[in-house]
Design brief:
With about 290 residues, this protein is mainly beta. The protein has one domain. Helices cover about 10% and strands about 50% of the residues. It has helices spanning about 5-10, 15-20, 25-30, 85-90, 235-240; strands at about 45-55, 60-70, 75-80, 95-100, 105-115, 120-130, 130-140, 170, 185-190, 195-210, 210-225, 245-250, 255-265, 270-285. Strands 1, 2, 3, 4, 5, 6, 7, 8, 9, 10, 11, 12, 13 and 14 form a 14-stranded antiparallel β-sheet that branches. A hairpin with a 4-residue loop joins strand 5 (about 105-115) and strand 6. Residues about 1-40 and about 285-290 have low confidence and may be disordered.
């Protein structure tokens, strides 16, 4: 019988830098952010999506991502918790919230993260303005090590927080999603480290889920460390060289937005997959397509 090895996930909690890098769910959600030039918020709309998470085909966590758009304002919330057998090995709960504005691009204003297990707690509080971090608290702090790439002021400018990266403005072309949904480089600061996620188009795929039936744009992704990391650390090298990252994007009916449907990354314990099970849309021009 196959057993689920959660030791890599449990160990990352003792080091926030490692946690930020091995947490594939967070990274691929960031990778999913695909801001299209000329996209607009459109009608007021709210979306809630339920996700399952597995490693090597074995479930270990559940999550929910919800977003609300009103005018040029947005708010997003995410909740992730281990369940089933995995909960016995390492019980973990993570909550994140973000809010900001849509101007010509996504402009975060606030971001918070609270993650805890029996062994550790991680907390982030960020305030942003004009794409730059104005106030930051991240606990526990990074250890000061001689091989760590220092985080400078320039690394905290023109960035997105991890949760705002799941807001995906996109204007469909003739009612269809295009290859350009994946043509992006996304700058991320998670409270400890700064990195880019470079997206590229791989293919289209057919999707059927509760709330949507149609095409998804499948984006490949590469993780590029910028600051806060240790260049020779095994987890950093592994993720930097990892070419097996994907994010599937699908349109939210009746809006100018995409939402992550499936995200995956190869890990040393097997492929980690985060997949949408259902999503509910309220408001927008196409609320009739929503499922409840």
């Amino acid at each position: 019988m196959k057993t689920l090895d959660l030791s890599p996930i449990a160990k990352t909690g003792r080091n926030p830098a490692a946690a930020g890098k091995v947490a594939a769910a967070g990274m691929l959600a960031m990778a999913s952010m695909a801001l299209a030039p000329g996209a607009s918020a459109g009608n007021d709309v709210s979306v809630a999506g339920d996700y399952s998470m597995s490693i090597a085909g074995l479930p270990f966590a559940k999550g929910r991502l919800s977003m609300a758009i009103k005018g040029d304002l947005y708010a997003a919330r995410a909740k992730i918790a281990t369940w089933g057998v995995a909960k016995i090995i390492v019980e973990s709960k993570t909550y994140a919230e973000a809010s900001g504005r849509f101007r010509r691009s996504v402009r975060p204003a606030k971001y918070s993260l609270d993650s805890k297990t029996e062994e550790y707690n991680m907390n982030v509080r960020m305030r942003l303005s004009g794409g730059a971090i104005r106030n930051l608290s991240a606990k526990p702090p990074l250890r000061k090590l001689p091989d760590r790439v220092p985080v400078r002021a320039r690394h905290k400018a023109n960035v997105l927080d991890p949760l705002s990266a799941a807001i995906i403005p996109y204007r469909m072309k003739n009612g269809k999603i295009g290859k350009d949904a994946c043509k992006k480089t996304v700058p991320i600061f998670d409270g400890w480290s700064r990195f880019d996620v470079k997206l590229h188009f791989r293919r289209f795929a057919d999707v059927r889920t509760e709330g949507y039936k149609g095409k998804a744009a499948v984006c490949g992704a590469r993780w590029v460390p910028v600051a806060g990391h240790r260049p020779n650390k095994k987890t950093v090298i592994y993720l930097k060289e990892n070419k097996d990252l994907e994010a599937w994007l699908i349109p939210v009916p009746g809006s100018n937005f995409l939402i992550p449907y499936r995200m995956s990354i190869r890990t040393k314990s097997g492929k980690m997959v985060i997949q949408n099970k259902r999503f509910v849309v309220n408001g927008g021009k196409g609320s009739k397509h929503a499922r409840k």
